[in-house]
């Protein structure tokens, strides 16, 4: 029907700088974690620390996925069997699975109808004597109300690990996600995120002990500080294993990409925001619930642009997805809530009726294309396609 090429739901934006830096890395002979990764970590720290110089500085360590980073953060906090961790149901399974890696239990809670971020009233009802931590997700790139979340965590003495996979760069009340007084925030550089290294992630924390433990566990439990202390006296082949660690380090090939993606991240955010603003204006007259924008002194990373069908529309989500595909436009759904996934549903005997906000959102939502490489013509095409879907109601 449509002569236009298929418009995917997401695409990375990779320039000549990234390609050249990868080529330099390959020619250097140093492929695994080394100087490029150290530079990427330092650059990432510098960006966050420059954003809020008044707040305590953070350290950053690169890992081969955000999932790995979330696991390292929980490990460093000593989360284990018998502990419970509160997680919003409206997220990707990675947020919750790392809790099970540690042998702790996941307690899923519902989200707020506007932002689809964690509902602290639902979280309050979920707290027990075993609750040890809470993992807020900055859904779609819009920050959780972190002052409220941190006050809640303090009230119940909970550790806080932020799933910031969608949230670079994101601000709440002028504070960058990564700089809040949580235990750690973990960013993702998966191929479709707001910046990418193909696969990769970054653990950020203001707590040097957490960073030191995560660094050791990132690479087989080898303690580099012990190593460094003795390098002057010991031969270069010597190392000490202090724990059964993981293999979660990021390669220099990936970091070569990240160094340049990071430099472009503000430019990427501005383009994503411009597209989101255009959507919010042009789709306002359709029977849709459009996504929340950031409040004053906020910044939305706009990883996703999620629309929900209004209550009165006769269309279903599947009708809309199908009609968009017929017009050559890709879309997706974020997320099939965890309470519907067989593992989580069966393990914790979960009922959809316990998560009414997430359940309703899921049934009526779709994510339309949003990425920095989209042209204005691509954006207009999506808008026209959305109007066409509802014109034939
Ligand atoms: C992408 C994503 C992750 C996992 O990131 P990886 O880097 O692929 O491990 C975790 N949580 C959320 C909400 C995500 O979207």
TrEMBL record:
Claim: Transferase is one of the keywords in the record: yes
Keyword set, alphabetical order: Aminotransferase, Pyridoxal phosphate, Transferase
Annotated signal peptide: none
Keyword set includes Methyltransferase: no
Molecular-function GO terms, alphabetical: transaminase activity
Domain of life, source organism: Bacteria
Family: Belongs to the DegT/DnrJ/EryC1 family.
PANTHER family found in the cross-reference section: DTDP-4-AMINO-4,6-DIDEOXYGALACTOSE TRANSAMINASE, TRANSAMINASE
Identification of the protein by name: DegT/DnrJ/EryC1/StrS aminotransferase family protein
Phylogenetic placement of the source organism: Bacteria, Pseudomonadati, Pseudomonadota, Betaproteobacteria, Burkholderiales
